[in-house]
Amino acid sequence: PATITLCYFSDIVQASFLTRWEDIVALDPLHLWTEAAIREKFEWSQPPGIHALAVRVHRLYEPLVLPLTPEMSGCKSWIGVPCDFGTASSSPVLDDGAFAYRLAALAPLLSLRQAH
């Protein structure tokens, strides 16, 4: 395709680099990755570990259609997007109460055992 359509964006609310495998396993019900995929990324990193992010997802009222560039193609963890989502009309996917509840369950797993 010549374009990519974005219907959602997310804000990083909390980030941690986890270095203990047991802490990573504790996050298992909260993501969609397989254990094999996480183990591969964990062992590939130097030092071994995983970046764990708590994000708040927002739905754009009007999808954003961007030209697909070579930088956006392929397997990428992060790409630069040529727009400012802070000015886009959107709403959080979870209301404030539901998000606060989920973040409260996740925050201790990210903040208590992060590497320093």
Describe what this molecule looks like in 3D.
The chain has 116 residues and is an alpha+beta fold. The protein contains three helices and three strands. The protein has a three-stranded antiparallel beta sheet with strand order 1-2-3. Mean pLDDT is 86; it is low at 112-116.
Question: What does the secondary structure layout of this molecule look like, with pairings?
Answer:
Blueprint: E1 3-18, H1 21-26, H2 35-44, E2 50-67, E3 90-92, H3 96-111
Antiparallel strand pairs: 1-2, 2-3
Distance between the terminal alpha carbons, to the nearest Å?
43 Å
Strand order of the largest sheet: 1-2-3
Report the helical percentage.
Answer: 25-40%
Mean pLDDT comes to 86
State the total count of DSSP E strands.
3
Given helix and strand content, the structural type is alpha+beta
User: What is the ordering of alpha helices and beta strands?
Assistant: EHHEEH
Quaternary assembly:
single chain
Beta-strand share of residues = 25-35%
Sheet with the most strands, sense and barrel status: 3 strands, antiparallel
Q: Assign an overall shape.
A: flat
Number of helices: 3
Rounded to an integer, what's the Rg over CA atoms?
16 Å
